[in-house]
Specification:
The protein is mostly beta strands and 219 residues long. The chain is 0% helix and 43% strand. A hairpin with a 4-residue loop joins β1 and β2. The N terminus is likely disordered.
Length: 219
């Protein structure tokens, strides 16, 4: 029996430039991922070179959503805040990009902001500074990464009376204050004066944003 060979369409590609940092300069080592419309898994990925340009080749003709600044790539420096093309915060809202056989869809770039930061102070009775308190920022309803299906992990800082949580992927977080990092004898609480994560006030961290005043008075 003769089996007819499947006819495959020639592949296309997506390319562009990624800028960021002070002065919106070309960024090297930024991971870019192409996801076919209607799916959650990546069809291809690439990394920007020293001039900030990338190219994702070998893509089947069709429509794609493009994720720029994916922090899960092993070759990414992770300092750029990711976004979907064009400046969208979710895959569903992202602008579609059409790939044509034997053609490059160029100009699919972005200017990325940086990760966010949360700061505050930790005190006890009499406004006495507390050192050794664990301060944890936990993502709220995190969305799996399209390349490795991973989700952002909680970020932890240890207070010295004050604290700084850095490297936060833009999104929504709750902040927990707990013992176990040196301090003892205090009840776990969440911002703002909540006794459980479900009652915590949600904090929205924008790209390059610094959210100050997320403080706690421990009991």
């Amino acid at each position: 029996m003769t089996v007819a060979a499947e006819k495959l369409s020639p592949a296309g590609s997506i390319s562009g430039t990624v800028l960021g940092g002070p002065g919106a300069t070309p960024q090297a080592g930024v991971c870019v991922v192409a996801v076919p419309v209607g799916t959650s898994g990546a069809a291809g990925s690439g990394s920007t070179n020293a001039t900030g340009t990338y190219k994702i080749s070998g893509l089947a003709p069709g429509n794609y959503k493009v994720y720029l600044g994916d922090p899960s790539c092993i070759f990414s420096d992770g300092s750029a805040a990711p976004q979907w093309y064009q400046g969208k915060s979710s895959q569903a809202a992202a602008t579609g990009v059409k790939v044509v056989a034997n053609s490059d869809t160029a100009g699919i770039g972005a200017t990325l902001g940086g990760d966010g930061t949360i700061t505050g102070v930790v005190t006890a009775h009499g406004h006495k500074a507390v050192a050794g308190e664990c301060v944890t920022a936990t993502p709220v309803n995190p969305v799996p990464d399209p390349l490795f299906d991973a989700v952002p992990h909680p970020v932890i800082a240890i207070s010295s009376g004050s604290y700084v949580l850095t490297g936060l992927v833009p999104g929504k977080y709750t902040v927990e204050f707990s013992t176990g990092c040196g301090a003892t004898g205090f009840r776990t609480q969440w911002w703002h004066n909540a006794g459980s994560a479900g009652k915590a006030t949600v904090i929205t961290v924008p790209p390059s944003g610094i959210i100050n005043g997320i403080s706690a008075s421990l009991h």
